[in-house]
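#structure-requests
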Amino acid sequence: MDFRFIKGLTQYLADQGLAGNADLVGWAGAGKAFLDPASKDFALLQVELSHKLHGISEVHVINHIDCGAYGGSKTLGAYNQEHEFQIGELKKVKAVLAERFPHLQFVGYLAKLEDRDISVEKVAV
């Protein structure tokens, strides 16, 4: 959802060979939507439709540092604390997706925006 990430994420997807071969769905607090009872069904429906219509085999979820949907860095603490928190959230998302879609591979990422530059870290979850 965040326009500040579009250019960097587009380049990252291209570098990973995913550009033009992925359904891109974005909303505020991407990973959080899979964990929040108010939005969980919506988030899972997007994966279900992508699988049904396009035969996806992987789900890539990108959380980011200083995410406003989580209250931002002011709420989550120092970088190391926030980094660990976000990795924990991605682990929870993986579990939710594995329960509903055990045949899909999950890939989690943590992005960080500095000015207009984005760094993306693939995280082991």
